[in-house]
Structures are given as C-alpha cells and as structure tokens.
Design brief:
By secondary structure, this protein is of the alpha/beta class. It has a single domain, classed as P-loop containing nucleotide triphosphate hydrolases (Rossmann fold, 3-Layer(aba) Sandwich), CATH 3.40.50.300. 33% of the residues lie in helices and 15% in strands. Strands 1-11-6-10-7-9-8 form a 7-stranded mixed β-sheet, sandwiched between helices. A 4-stranded antiparallel β-sheet has the order 4-3-2-5, with helices on one face. A hairpin with a 2-residue loop joins strand 3 and strand 4.
C-alpha cells in the first residue's frame, strides 16, 4: 500500500494542501538529506542551493526528506502545482500523533477531491473534527458506528442503515460548487471501539476462523463499498484518530493508499 507524506514544513493550515496533487510525495530510504548543524538552524542542500530551517538539536541527522523539502520549496516559492490523475480510489489520512493538522488536511483534500469526482467521506476519529467541520453544530442521528456495530456484534445491536451518509453541501456551502459528496459522521463512542473490535477478533482467531477474521478487518471496506455504490461515489476518503487501534486499524485495511501528515521539528522527528 502506498504511503504519501504531505509537506511538513509549513503550518498545519497550509493553503497549498488544497491541491491534492501536492500530496504525491514518497518517503525514501536514501542517505539522510537533512543535517542539523546547530541548536537553532537546520541546513540542507537541494539542487545545489542551501536553505535554513527551524531549530533542532546540534549534530542531529534526520531521515531522508529531500523529495518532500524539494517539492515544498517549489510550492512555496514558485506556486508549483503538480499535474496528473489521481491513482487511487480510497485514501486514509492517518498519523500516530495529534496536532499535526490531520483533520485540516482531510477537509482540504476532501474539497479538492470532490471537484474531480463524487466523494464518500468517513470520520473514524472519536474527536469528530472532520464531522464538525463539515456538519457544524449538527447532531447526526446516524453515524459510522451505527453501521459497524451490527456487523461486529450482531443484529441485537440494530441493523445496518440503508442510508448511512449525509449530503455535505447541505451543511457546508463550499461543497455546493463541487460534485456530490457524502459524509458518514464520526461518533464520540468510537473511543470504545477498539475493545469491541479486538474482542471479536480474539474470538475468531482462537477458533481458527480465518474467514471471520478477514470479515472483521474488512468490515469498514464492505460498508464503504456499499455506501459508495448507493450514492454513486467514485472516491472514498477517511479521517482517522492519532492512535493505531480500532477505527484506524480498519481504515488502513479499507484504504488503497495512506496519507501521513508529518512535521520536521525536533520532537516530531524524534
């Protein structure tokens, strides 16, 4: 599965992230491209030019981010926009750290994606930031958790809703200018979802039931595929929590590609 890393240098509300093509940056395993020379500056060389970035520990060698930094420089200094077609149908925006702009990127990416194709969104984070951005001050009756519980726990916990998503343009005016977008809202009770999922996985695994394990891990993909078909959505985008558990786990299983927002400050690299 491809993993994309958005530009890490600018603030978490980077306006250039509004263009989805800027996200097509791969992490590489080449020799380190960024060497921090002092306690206050990081010096790196791109195409024969030298630049200075933020603070970092003296003598600390960071992992290779040359391609990320090069693209960031072109975007900020030259207004570069990379052209090309989107390669994947479904994306998950995910990082195992909070406060790096994950939901901001998900919101901006959703807008740009919906200009090109009808889109289905799923908020898999218990904080529900994406839901709040798209359905501000609303209290949706049906959430993504309502679609997952019947699959994981059985019919005693209800049936899968026939209509599990909301038209975004009804609540967020900018999406009135895009192709149809639908949101499966988040739910604060997703914080308890990991124990629910892993209890079922443990039972299936102890019984040697590989089919059940597969069905549980692909439960979100199954739901998204059905909802996308019902709403004629050609793309899928998921926002996740900063913890690899439960909703994030099955979002990774449902995604064709993962977008990982990162920063290059000292604490993030460490």
């Amino acid at each position: 599965m491809p993993i994309f890393i958005p530009h890490p240098i600018a603030s978490t509300t980077c306006t250039f992230l509004l263009n989805q093509h800027h996200l097509h940056i791969f992490a590489r395993t080449e020799p380190p491209a960024l060497l921090c020379l002092t306690s206050t500056t990081c010096k790196f060389t791109l195409r024969g030019t030298t630049s200075v970035l933020g603070s970092a520990a003296e003598g600390h060698v960071m992992s290779s981010l040359e391609k990320v930094l090069e693209t960031h420089s072109k975007v900020v200094e030259d207004g570069h926009v990379q052209t090309g077609e989107l390669k994947y149908r479904s994306y998950a925006v995910s990082t195992l750290r909070g406060g790096v702009g994950k939901s901001t990127i998900a919101f901006n990416f959703a807008y740009e994606l919906s200009i090109q194709r009808p889109l289905l969104l799923a908020d898999m984070c218990a904080q529900c930031n994406l839901t709040e951005n798209l359905m501000r001050d609303q209290d949706p009756e049906i959430t993504v958790l309502d679609t997952l519980q019947p699959i994981l726990l059985g019919p005693a916990f209800g049936s899968i809703p026939h209509d599990a998503s909301y038209r975004v343009s009804k609540y967020c005016d900018p999406f009135k200018m895009t192709k149809p977008s639908y949101l499966m809202p988040g739910n604060a009770e997703l914080f308890a979802f990991p124990s629910m999922l892993y209890q079922q996985l443990q039972t299936a695994h102890s019984q040697g039931n590989k089919k059940a394990v597969k069905a549980l891990l692909e439960s979100l993909r199954t739901i998204l595929d059905k909802e996308a078909k019902d709403k004629h959505s050609e793309g899928i985008l998921m926002d996740t929590s900063p913890f690899y558990a439960g909703g994030t786990h099955i979002a990774w299983a449902a995604a064709d590609a993962i977008i990982i927002p990162v920063r290059v400050d000292e604490h993030s690299i460490d």
